[in-house]
Amino acid sequence: MHRFLLMLLYPFSDNRPMMFFRSFVVFFFLIFFTSNVSSHKQTYVIHTVATSTKHIVTSLFNSLRTENIYDDGFSLPEIHYIYENAMSGFSATLTDDQLETVKNTKGFISAYPDELLSLHTTYSHEFLGLEYGIGLWNETSLSSDVIVGLVDTGISPEHVSFRDTHMTPVPSRWRGSCDEGTNFSSSSCNKKIIGASAFYKGYESIVGKINETTDFRSARDAQGHGTHTASTAAGGIVPKANYFGQAKGLASGMRFTSRIAAYKACWALGCANTDVIAAIDRAILDGVDVISLSLGGSSRPFYVDPVAIAGFGAMQKNIFVSCSAGNSGPTASTVSNGAPWLMTVAASYTDRTFPAIVRIGNRKSLVGSSLYKGKSLKNLSLAFNRTAGEGSGAVFCIRDSLKRELVEGKIVICLRGASGRTAKGEEVKRSGGAAMLLVSTEAEGEELLADPHVLPAVSIGFSDGKTLLTYLASAANATAAVRFRGTTYGATAPMVAAFSSRGPSVAGPEVAKPDIAAPGMNILAGWSPFSSPSLLRSDPRRVQFNIISGTSMACPHISGIAALIKSVHGDWSPAMIKSAIMTTARITDNRNRPIGDRGAAGAESAATAFAFGAGHVDPTRAVDPGLVYDTSTVDYLNYLCSLNYTSQIILLFSGTNYTCPSNGVVLSPGDLNYPSFAVNFVNGANLKTVRYKRTVTNVGSPACDYMAHVEEPKGVKVRVEPKVLKFQKVRERLSYTVTFDAEASRNTSSSSFGVLVWMCDKYNVRSPISVTWE
After folding, report:
1. Is 770 an annotated catalytic residue?
2. More reliable by pLDDT, 189 or 299
3. In this structure, how many other beta carbons lie within 10 angstroms of the beta carbon of residue 107?
4. Which of 52-66, 174-188, 290-304, 591-605 comes out lowest in average pLDDT?
5. What confidence tens digit (pLDDT) does each residue in 387-423 have?
6. Which pLDDT band holds residue 767 (cuts at 50, 70, 90)?
7. Relative to the CA of 189, which of 8, 428, 655, 738 has its CA 20 to 30 Å away?
8. Does the domain made of 41-65+74-113 have the CATH classification 2.130.10.10?
C-alpha cells in the first residue's frame, strides 16, 4: 500500500465521540465480535456536507445487514474520528465495498487515503531583539492570556520550562481537558500546560499498535521534538540553560507567559493525517488562539491537503496557524504547507555558532561546526571510503559498513546522505573511530549543522569538503588535527539554512511561499528525559535542553511571536498578524548586507523571496506595521474560485454552500489581498501584462500619506496606481493596483525579484515581488 511520509505529525485519540457512533460500536461489537479482519482495508479521510456526517455513518452500518457475516472476507468498518470544527466529516478504516457505500450516500463530498506526515526537525529571543521589560516583552503585553496549541510529539510536563509559578488561574474561556493516559495523569497539567491530548487511531491503523516500551499512548513526549517546539514558542524563562556547557544562557519561549495546549499526533514513524486533523479539530473546540504545526508532507492541491483544509477551519474561527516550510531545500519548489491562509516559515541561522577548526596535513585550515566540548585532537590519520570499509555504504558510514581494523583510532570522513547524521557517528564509534568529519555534498551546500553526536564530530560545508577530499586523494598518509572552540557569537546572520524548503509553490504559484524566515538552525530548547539528545537508542545520555535544527524549530518562533502580537492587538485577524510580520521583516544581516543563503549556490549568494519570503522576522517592528493587508474568509473562497475549483470542492473548505461571483466578474488568483506579489509569465505567450489589486488598512498613525517606492524585478516594468495613499483615520481602507509589464519573452525558465514599499514617516510597509517565466 503506497504511503507518503508526512513531517512531524502524530496520532490522536478522541475521548468525546458522538453518542450515535458510540451506540453503533457497542451494537455491532456484540453481534460481530467473531468477524475476521480483511486484508483489503484502508484508512480514509472522508469529507461530508456538515449536516450529513451522522447520516453517512448510519447508512454505512445499515449496509452491513445485507452482508454475510460468516464470510471470511467480512470486516467491520472502524470509525476513528468525527470532525466537526476543522472540517465536516470523519475518518474510518474501510474495505473497498464499504468505501463505495460511503461514496454513494447523499452528503458525501470526497475521500482519500490516510498518510503519514513527517516532522520538520535560548538565545533566539535576544537575537530577535526581545528584552524583558522593553518593547513587546513589557508587562502589559505579557499579562494577557494567549493560548498556543502545538500539534507535535507531546510534551514533558515536569520540564522546568513549563512551571507555572506566579501564573494566574486558567482563563474561564478555556474548554479543553488534560486527558489521562500512559504515564500521564490529569495532575500533569498546571496553569502553564492547560490542556493535553493524544491522537493515535490513524497512526495505529497504518503502522500497528504503538510499542509502549518506547513511546506512550498519552500526551507524554517520548521523543523530545514536542517539548522542544513548545518551549521555543511559549516556554518560561530558564537561566543558565545549556547543552553540556554549550550555548549557556537564558532560555525562553517567544511569548513566555502564554498558556500551552499539547496535542500529541506524531509518533515514532510520523503523523497520520487523520490524527492531525483530529488534533486541530480539538484545538479549535478547546479555544486556542494560535496553532503551531511543525510538520507536513509534499506539496499537493489544497483540496487533498488535510493541513490546508483543517487550517482553513481554524482560520475561520480567527485562529492563527503557523506551519514549517519543510526541510527539502535548497531544491526549488519543495515548500510545503503553502495554502495562503497558513503562515509558512523558513529556517535561518542566528549569529551564535559552535566553530571547530580542522587543520589538515597540508597546513590548510577548514572551519566546521561541532557541539563537542573537550580536548583538541592532535594529528590523527584520516580514513574514508575504501580505507575505512567495504562496499558503497562506507562513503556514507551507514550501519555495518566500516571495518574496525581500518578505522580504529582514526578520524573517519563520512558524506551526508543515505543515513541519519548522528547514526553515522554511532557507526564510527562502534567501529573504533576516534572522531568523524561529516562532509556536506553539493546538494547541501555550505550547511554547518551542530548535531549532538556520540563522539567528537565536525560538520563541514561543501567547499571545505572538496578541499579535504582533494588533499586526501593526493596524500600518502593523510592526517588532520581538530580544535574545538565552543560557543561563539557575532557570526554573519541571519542567513537562510540550506535545508529550508524553497518556493515557488507547486500547489499555488500565484502566492509567493514561504512567507517568512525565523531562527531554525542549532536551536537550544527543552528536551524529553525519555530520549537521548542524538535520538539513538545506544546513547545513554539524557539532557534537559538539546540543540537541534529544522524548519520545525523556526515555526514555533513565529507561533510565539504571533501570540505576542495577539496580546497587543487582540482584535486583529490572523491575516492582519501575518501581514504585520511579513511587511516589517528585515532583509539585511548584522553587517548591513543582503541576507545570505547557505544553499548550493554558496554562502555569499543573496537570499531571494523563494528562500525567505518577505525576509527575516523582526518582532519589535511587527507590532507597529503602519498598514496591513487583511483577508477575509470570503476573500479566500474567491481565491479558490479563481483556481477553478468546483462548488463541491469549495464545500470542503467553506462547510456550507458558497456561490462564486459571476455577472462578468473575472477572478484572478493574484488578486488575493496578500502581502506579497507572485507574477507568472509563460514564455512565448501573448500575455505580457499582469495587473493585481490590493487593499491596505491603516493601523498606524491616524493621518499619514504613504508614497509608493518600487525596485523593479529584472525584465519587468512595474506601475503603481495611485502612487500616494492618503489616510485620514485608523482602520481606513484604501486600494491600489500594480501593473507588471514583461519587457520580453524568455527562452528558458527563470525568476527575478523586486519590491514594493509604501513609505510614510517611520513606516516602511514592504512587499516582495517575485516574477517567474515558465
Report:
1. no
2. 189
3. 18
4. 52-66
5. 999 888 899 999 999 999 999 999 999 999 888 899 9
6. very high
7. 8
8. no
Domain boundaries, the chain: 41-65+74-113, 126-351+495-621, 355-484, 626-631+673-773
According to DSSP, residue 638 is labeled: H
pLDDT of residue 684: 67
Q: Which of 12-21, 27-36, 302-311 has the highest mean pLDDT?
A: 302-311
Verify whether residue 225 is a known catalytic residue.
yes
How far, in Å, CA of 654 to CA of 353, rounded?
A: 46
Q: Is 241 exposed, middle or buried (0-12, 13-18, 19+ CB in 10 A)?
A: buried
Average pLDDT, the chain: 87
Look up residue 186 and give its DSSP letter: G
The H or E element containing residue 240 is: strand 238-243
Q: Which cell is 51 given? A: 449536516
45 grid coordinates: 479521510
> Is residue 27 over pLDDT 60?
no
| Catalytic choice (159, 225, 453, 569) | 225
Length of the chain: 774
Phi and psi torsions of 630, nearest 5°: -90, 145
Dihedral sign computed on CA atoms, order 181, 555, 332, 394: negative
Distances, alpha carbon 755 to alpha carbons 218, 575, 676, 765, in Å: 48, 20, 9, 10
Residue 161's Cα: distance from chain center in Å?
22
Whose cell is 470544527? That residue is 85
- Yes or no: say if 296 and 117 are a contact pair by the CB < 8 Å rule: yes
Contact between 447 and 440 under an 8 Å Cβ cutoff? The reply is yes
- What distance in Å separates the CA atoms of residue 402 and residue 420, rounded to the nearest whole number? 15
Q: Is 552 a catalytic residue?
A: yes
563 residue type, one letter = A
Tell me the pLDDT band of 766, cut-offs 50, 70 and 90: very high
Query: Do 126-351+495-621 and 626-631+673-773 have matching folds?
Result: no
> Average pLDDT for residues 560-565, to the nearest whole number?
93
Angle of the 647-654 helix axis to the 306-316 helix axis, nearest 10: 60
Q: How far is CA 418 from the centre of its chain?
A: 23
CATH class for the domain made up of 355-484: alpha beta
**Whether the predicted pLDDT of 13 surpasses 80:** no
Question: Residue 2: which pLDDT band, with cuts at 50, 70 and 90?
Answer: very low
Residues facing 679 on adjacent strands: 771
pLDDT at 136: 53
Pick the closest to residue 119 from 322, 295, 305, 337 (CA basis). Answer: 295
Give the active site residue among 552, 579, 605, 770. 552
Angle, helices 647-654/633-642, rounded to nearest 10 degrees: 150
| Cell numbers 450516500: residue | 105
Say how many C-beta atoms besides its own lie within 10 A of residue 715's C-beta. 16
Residue 22 has pLDDT above 70, yes or no: no
User: What is the per-residue DSSP string for 111-167?
Assistant: EEE--EEEE----HHHHTT-BTTBGGGSHHHHHS--EEEEEES-B-TTSGGG--TTP
Beta strands in 683-762 (DSSP E): 689-698, 704-711, 716-721, 724-727, 733-742, 750-760
**Active-site annotation holder among 152, 281, 286, 597:** 152
CATH of domain 626-631+673-773: 2.60.40.2310
CB 93 within 8 A of CB 39: no
Beta bridge partners, 225, equal: none
Tens digits of residue pLDDT in 432-477: 999 999 999 888 888 888 999 999 999 999 999 999 999 999 998 9
- Residues 110 and 230 sit within 8 Å (Cβ to Cβ): no
Give the β-pairing of 435-439 and 411-415: parallel
Q: What is the largest CA-CA distance in the chain?
A: 81
Task: Tally Cβ neighbours within 10 Å of residue 375.
Answer: 10
d(CA 459, CA 482): 12
Q: Considering the domain 126-351+495-621 in this protein, what is its CATH number?
A: 3.40.50.200
